[in-house]
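note to self — DONT lose this again. spent like an hour looking for the file last time. sequence + predicted structure for the chain T wanted, 471 res
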Amino acid sequence: MGPAPLPETGFLDDWAARLRQGADPPVVGIMLRGSHARRGATEHSDVDLDVLVDVDGSADDRSTHDRSAAPEPGAAYRPATTPGDGPAGGPPARAYAARRAFLAEFEGRLVHVSVAARDIRSWVHRLGEPADWAFGLPVTAPVRLIWAVPEWRRRIDLPVLCQPADEPRLEDLIATLGKVAGARWADDPRGVRLAAADLARLCPSVLRLANPSVRVDSRRGALTAVLDLPVAPPGYRDDMLLCLGLRPGSVAEVSVAAGRLVTGIVPLVRPYAEEIAAVAGADLAEALLDGRLDRYLAQLTRAVAGAGSGPRDTSPVPAPRAGQWVTVPASDAPLTGAPATAGEPAAPAPVRPSRLDPAIAARLRRTPDGLVAAVVRQHDSGEVLMVAWMDDEALHRTLTTGRATYWSRSRQEYWVKGATSGHHQHVRSVALDCDGDALLVSVDQVGAACHTGHRTCFFTELPVTAAEATS
């Protein structure tokens, strides 16, 4: 079933007139938002309306309110007030907000009309704050102005509502892992699940530091975006779904997943200590660099794990010295050499599921474990930097994010070059060789390509003694 049509203009105009009728404080604008505004509604979708009122009365133009044409009184959405909330027991200044719901007839069926009345100035101010439903991501949500007084039309006649991303809430993330540990220690299964869900909602605000920017327009879109972040810890997607309660799991599995998320995110955001300091202060940023945070997380994860917990990622992450960035060889070293499995026929299809364009996937000639060699060079000089392995999904992520992404055969996981070291590879082009079994990845290399700290992995010269080479 396709999207439902927007309510006809007469329907929206009628509701605009109803909501303006007798309003006190006066209405200065009415906006359509939600699924109908972004043209993604079904026949079951609500019609979401923002009614913007002028509490201060500076834009009050009573001539614009057509009282005689209104079939219902605007008082239907007028909030109950407490004496002393506003002048002479009137509506509270600035804090004015109310919600009302209606069931209206439309094309022979009932439609839920959801009305949110807000002070115009606080509504405008909210556009400068993160959306609480967006998992910390920035928002660009389509809206449609139905009606406005001239004084405010220019300011609120917007094609989209833009709200900024949340700040990287690393401190809150750590504190919430403490709540998971506390609930686990107290044998409080509901407390574990509630805290783990809160923890999962905080993760994207921190991971956003290491990922390409993405904007969202709905809660469902936000969830999809955060689950698909290309720079993320091993097992991130499954752990997020577990913690959010969107995948079944025991309390022990949920608590361990929460610990994995936090301990996996910390190494990825270590290069962004300055951004952390700007939000949470210098001490947390220094702890991120000097190893104190790793030791504290080790304390929490011991409490979180408990008896009978699942396997943990044990790849070493050395603690950096204060004031220095580090390269973590375990997570950032290219793997070269013969395929892990030899003597078997070539795999006709990728081993792991992938979103790679089928036309590209059909041209790949993979190793038995579903991999293709990737030769990486500096795009402008042609200098060969390293050789690594890609499967179909690593190639898809490389092509769609612009960040070089590879498959680790030893750890059986994806890794993004520079995610831990800061030595990023910004992809300029990718070419497939004539046989389909190798890729040439042209990048703009930041810093060293080799995990040893050298610019290129090919820094060891071997003696060539053939006569033709010396003549």
